[in-house]
Amino acid sequence: LRVLLAAIGLAFSAVASATVPPPPPIALVSADMRPHQSLDGPWHWSVDPYRDGRAGFHGGPPGPSSQRYADIIQADVAAKDPTALFEFDMQRSPTVELPGAWIGHSPEMRYYNGLVWYQRTFDFTPQPGKRTFVRFGAVDYRADLYLNGKKLISHFGGFTPFAAEVTQFVRPGRNQITVGVDSERNSLDVPPVVTDWENYGGITRSVSLISVPETFIDDAWVRLTKDGRIAASVRLNGSQMAGFPVRLRIPSLGLTIAGTTDGDGRWTGNAPVTRALRRWSPESPTLYDVRFEAGIDVLADRVGFRTIEVRGEDILLNGKPIFLRGISMHEEELGENPVRRITPEAAKALLGTIKQGLHGNFVRLAHYPHSEVMTRAADELGLLVWSEIPVYWQVQWDNPGVLSSAEEMLRENIVRDRNRASIILWSVGNETPVSDARTAFMRALVKQVRELDDSRLVTAALLSARKGNVQTIDDPLAGGLDVMAVNTYNGWYTPDPLASLPELEWRSPVRKPLIFSEFGADAKAGYHDEAASPHKFSEEYQAEYYRQTLAMARKVPFLRGMSPWILKDFRSPRRQHPVFQQGWNRKGLISPTGQRKEAFGVLSKEYQALEAVGV
Ligand code: GCB
User: Fold this and answer.
1) Residue 558: closest CA among 310, 386, 329, 307
2) Mutate which of 195, 490, 494, 518 to test ligand 1's pocket (most atoms within 8 Å of Cβ)?
3) Does 566 sit behind a cis peptide bond, omega within 30 degrees of 0 on the bond before it?
4) Quick one: signal sequence residues (predicted)?
């Protein structure tokens, strides 16, 4: 049905675009920096495995005899109709602290996949002349949002923000907000149903109410261009779009770029870089306070300035060749029972381990856009970032509705994070087996990245083909990327003796920089095997796997970085070996609680040596 609707939508927008293009969805860029009323904290929750609250309990149209969870305020209904029957009662359901996935709500929720209702009240004081939005950092996977019984929007996709205007529906005093969160995905969704990570259904990122002037800055972007200018762009939302004065100010650089908007509320401007500008880099992650101003709306942000380019087989950061000393990471905090609650402290604990512990300068945020808390922490700590959308393994490549979903996520991700200097690579997918339909799909995503952001590089984690000892990157997508990346697991998923790995020779018909975006082996922290040929799952096997794979990597002439799999053991329902896995993928260099395995030291030593020679 969704695909049909998407197709109708596409047909309609094609007709509409001949006249007036539809307005872009609300972006509320850098919303986390705007003054807001937090709706984090206790929310009531109630499971709804048969989805009665959406469809109605007893059939028929909505009304006292067929209650939906969300479209009523029970007290109002009961006051009017004392005989009203409720088969649920949100206001008397238990509460949990949000954000956080429902896996942590109660032991029964461990394997729950389906619909859960959330509800809370809040007090609101309207400010004259202001518009108000409710914004969710992320809801996994589908969210149906209601305010005071009024359905506002549905959003699909578990990893990007969305907002809805509530100006007309929010009341002075007490309000009730309800969200139906459905974690079940089907074959038309992105990511597909089967992945190798925990689903973490629920409201996993912050919820806030944001009030802005009638005409406000919805999207704003500032960056350093390759020809050494500061370029800014702004898009307004409001009734007065044309001829609106806007400006960007960076007070500590004494820089102001000003102009007026066009008929669509858009403005772009640029100015040469002043000598005082200190460029952002992992060694010196300088951030500037910037202010976008449009009438009475002021949007503050903290932004770093750097350039990233490819020249031949080199990646240049601020004009200088760089080697990416990285590691991959899921969005999962340390601890035995993570609930995907990424606080600034949780983000800094993980990223700090990469920076200080591993001597890294790079993190691959796999396999979906991570919390904005994470990308802000990367900006502050000085870690280069690979950001990715969950086009993972197999999606329905020939379905235009699926492509639209992927494009929507990519747009939401790029618009949210375009001001983060740390992000240098947008990845359009992971391990997608080659076919004509898949390559056309992926090329459409690459094209979209280039339209939205000309200040970063495009990549994708590819597969390679092996013949004897020669491993070739023979993917037709490679030519359209800036940086090639491959995942390789010889010696773990193949029977190759570890000592033979350095004999593998890597070749590419395309002359571009290469990143090993994954390699790895499982080890249960604390399981040791001192035998001359240690067994898989031991710390010794994993450490030796790293030594030999690093020896292989050193011999690849066009390798410019790596992000082995993975920093921390992560929950994965498909990993059920009773002795070694217990529901966790154990390829982490640290255990769920942060205990370092032997291989951590092997990679750290390698990166320390690279750091010492200045790459
Ligand atoms: C991969 C996938 C990653 C898995 C990993 C593994 O190639 O990209 O999501 O978790 O292998 O452990 O098998």
Assistant:
1) 310
2) 518
3) yes
4) 1-18
Q: Residue holding tokens 């772009």?
A: 268
> Is the CB of 404 inside a 6 Å radius of any atom of ligand 1?
no
- Give 196 Cα–ligand 1 centroid separation in angstroms: 7
Ligand 1 centroid to 379 CA: how many Å?
26
The Cα–Cα gap between 102 and 201 comes to: 6
3-class secondary structure, 324: strand
| 561-593 burial: b if 16+ Cβ within 10 Å, else e | bbbbbbbbbbbbbebeeeebbeebbbbbbbbbe
Amino acid at 541: Y
- For β-strands 570-571 and 559-562, DSSP reports them as unpaired
Neighbours of 181 (CB within 10 A): 26
Pairing of β 139-140 and β 584-585 = unpaired
pLDDT digits (tens, 9 = 90+) for 259-318: 999 999 999 999 999 889 999 999 999 999 999 999 999 999 999 999 999 999 999 999
Helices within 42-103 (DSSP H only) = 52-55, 74-80
pTM of the model: 0.95
CA-CA distance, 355 to 350, in Å (whole number)?
9
Query: Is ipTM beyond 0.85?
Result: yes
Top mutation candidate among 331, 585, 586, 589 for ligand 1, by most atoms within 8 Å of CB = 585
CA distances from 331 to 150, 197, 373, 484 (A): 33, 10, 11, 24
Q: How far apart are CA 257 and CA 302, in angstroms?
A: 17
Task: Give the C-alpha separation, 487 to 158, whole Å.
Answer: 24
From the CB of 431, is ligand 1 less than 6 Å away?
Answer: yes
